[in-house]
Specification:
heterodimer, A: 294 residues, mainly alpha, 73% helix, globular, B: 285 residues, 0% strand
Amino acid sequence: MSVQRSAFIFAWILLLPAVLYVLAIVAYPLVDTFILSFTDASLKKTTNWVGWVNYEKIFNGTFAEVIVRTFIWTFFSVAFKMVIGTFGATMLNAAVPGRSLFRLLTMPPWIVPMAIGIFMWGWMYNGQFGMISGVLQRFGLVDGPVAFLAYGSTAFWATIITDVWIGVPLVTIYFLAAIQSIPKDLYEAAWTDGAGRWYRFRRITLPLMVPAIITMSMLSLIATFNSFDIIWILTQGGPSGETTTMIIDTYQTAIGSKKYGEGAARAVLICIFLSLFCFAYFRVTRRLNPEKRA
Amino acid sequence: MSNAAMIDRYRWWEIILIYCGIALFLFFVLAPFFEGFMVSLKPLSQLFSSPYRFWPENGSLEAYRTMWISVPGFGRYIFNSFFISIIVTLIVLCLVIPAAYAFAKFEFKGMGILLGAFLTVNMFSGAVLLIPLFRLMRSMGVLNTYLAMIVPGVAFLIPSAIWLLRTYMIRIPQELNEAAYMDGASHFYTLRRVILPIAMPGIIVVAITTFIGAYAQQFIFALTFNSKTEYMPLPVGLFAYFGKQEVIWNELMAASFVGIAPAMVVIFFLQRYLVGGLTAGAVKQ
């Protein structure tokens, strides 16, 4: 047996446990979802093949509306994350005393169990006694208490802001790393030519951050699209469905109403969108750094 | 060198602007924690008083004492959270260390695709797979046990752990392998005696991020696959409490802070490794 061959076998022995695990717990359920989506599976004992019925139901129902809402929700959440992340990274990159402490202080929303951060937002949004309503009233910006989670339009934005809050630390740290990898001599050359700070930011920092911003917005898009905990804890998709995204609707259908077949059809649709996003992500990152393997 | 020092020098008003910017940013990030902490210190009567005030008047730690009684099973939830996270982390490490080593040190056809496939797994949320996973867990008879939360939890933490550890292992010089191999050591011996000790800092980073991930993300699986209070991890336990008719907010916040304290302590001591390891992984990506 050649060295090459034994190395090949050894590599596969090392990979096998992880590969098998993921196949069993992710790949198999994925296939199962696809099959289930063509059946009327529910709590009943019998399961029948129903063809495209579940998919037809989706487009006859309110799901089309849910899809549009999901995209709007995702778009604004990702856009805010990018803007606030860029702002935060720029500020934290400045060489002022205390910056390592400030960098440390950005991390809590990311480290704390997500659900607990969301409980805190639940209180912030509380109409009678929460901080946001309280401060607005104190400054006379609103007349009475505002129960942000009780009305569709405010609940929609409230869930977006919480999602942004959870995503911002990772985006900021990633952007900070991107800024720091920009060669210093570029700044020096520009400075020697008399370029001001704002000019250097606009003409050097921002353009060289574009690959990082694109990569991060793709990753963030996928994560936001998948977001479940935030909406479920704050509103459970309410009031009257105005914060129901595709993931929430799928959960309500499949787990809440025990309509496994109909839920699976929704899940398949989500998978299709996610696959498109993943495909785009790999394409984009490969174009941004062509020397990268895989 | 001197130039670099000079362009980093700010005028006084720039420094003020930067501090204002940082304050604004940190306010957004920290406001919920500030507010949550203040609420946990306020006596119940003050929570519902108008007008709103930031600080508690005669704040007390009363809620931290009473919540042990009014959140039934609080100690149990904390224990469950830790227990589940530790087991998940151990399993992930056992699966990921060999795999990451294979991805870092061997090259053959199909490896790139496999690595890409692992990354794709990372992008699918558990929510999409809940129905078949539910059926799988039910047929395995593990619903309402710790396993129902551990088994799916592991799967979704494997990809990022492989990615992070691989980035770390690539940096170990290939010559070390070859030297050991020349001396007649087997592949397995080389991995165990040469690579593992050198990779230890990387493994520690992966262990910490996996633990935090397991601790932070145990919501949807626990919510769906387990309805028994004795196995609930903290987030779901508190959510069950949160869903009651009347939430005792100061106690909920006190319970939340006790729940996050261990994670905060760990981070505080290990943040240097963490930021280094994560940004290295992120930039490589």
